[in-house]
Amino acid sequence: MRPAAGRAATDKSPDWRGTRNANCLWPFPAAPHMNQPMTFLGWYQVKLFIEHASGISMDALHILVGFAIFLLAAWYLKRSVADGLPWLATLLLEIGNEAYDLHVELWPDWGSQLGEGAKDVMLTMALPTLLLMVARRRPKLLASDDPIGQA
C-alpha cells in the first residue's frame, strides 16, 4: 500500500486516504464499501445518476420503474398482467435491489434502513399489485367489448 502524500511508509496513524485518490488527504476514513471495485458500486451509481439527472425523487422512481418492470415482465414472459408471474418477477427484482441496497448503503440506524427498504418494496409493488387486482377482478375496466376505432 502506497503511503498518502506527506506521510512516511512506517507511519502507524489511521489510513486517511481519499476514497478515489490515494494522494488526497481526505479528513474521514474510507467507507468499507468504497474499497470494493467500481463494478460492485455500478448499479448504485446508476441509480443515483438517474435520480439526480431526472429530478425525480427516489420514491417516485420506485413507483415508475416498478410499473415499467411489471409491464416489461408481462411482455417478455408473454403473459397477461392478470397472471401472477410478471408480478412475482417484479417482486423478486425489487427484493434483489433492496438486498443490494442493504449491502451497499451504510446507515447509522439499522431500523431506519430496514424501514426504508420496506417502504421501497411497498412503493415499487403498489401499481403492479393494483393492476393485477383490477385485471383479475374487473377485467372489463381494462378492455371493452367495443374497441376504440372499430364501430
DSSP strand content: under 5%
Largest sheet: none
Q: What would you call the shape?
A: elongated
How many E-type strands?
0
- Roughly how many Å is the radius of gyration? 23 Å
Gap between N and C termini: 76 Å
The average pLDDT is 79
Unreliably modeled segments:
1-21
Count of domain modules: 2
Description:
There is one protein chain. The protein has 151 residues and is mostly helical. It folds into 2 domains: 1-30, no CATH class; 38-138, no CATH class. The chain has 4 helices and no strands. The longest helix has 28 residues, at 110-137. The protein is elongated.
Topology:
Elements (H helix, E strand, L loop, with lengths): L37 H17 L3 H19 L7 H21 L5 H28 L14
Helix pairs in contact: 2-3, 2-4, 3-4
Short description:
56% of the residues lie in helices and 0% in strands.
